[in-house]
From TrEMBL:
Keyword Iron tagged: yes
PANTHER family associated with the record: FERREDOXIN
Protein name from the UniProt record: Ferredoxin
GO molecular function: iron-sulfur cluster binding; metal ion binding
InterPro entries: Fe-S_cluster_ET
Length: 80
């Protein structure tokens, strides 16, 4: 499973931070950061989700009010 985070879409509500420790508040930019991620396109960050964090990642994606977080399974199918 991997997560894609569109930081440009993020509005800095930080609900994801409460759900998954991989998301961190960046008060200077008014947006969240995804720790351990790689920027694949401008403002699109991707990282693998450890098995023990899959539920937390799913909650983070579901709580994002602007759908800036998407989860994909190992076959590339969007889950959330």
């Amino acid at each position: 499973m991997h997560v894609e985070f569109d930081r440009d879409t993020c509005i800095g509500m930080y609900q994801c931070v409460e759900e998954w420790a991989a998301f961190e508040e960046n008060r200077n930019d008014g947006k969240a950061d995804l720790a351990g991620s790689e920027e694949t396109d401008p403002d699109l960050f991707v990282r693998e989700v450890p098995e023990d964090a899959e539920l937390d990642a799913e909650f983070a994606a579901r709580t994002c009010p602007v759908d800036a977080i998407e989860l994909y399974d190992d076959d590339g199918e969007r889950m959330v």
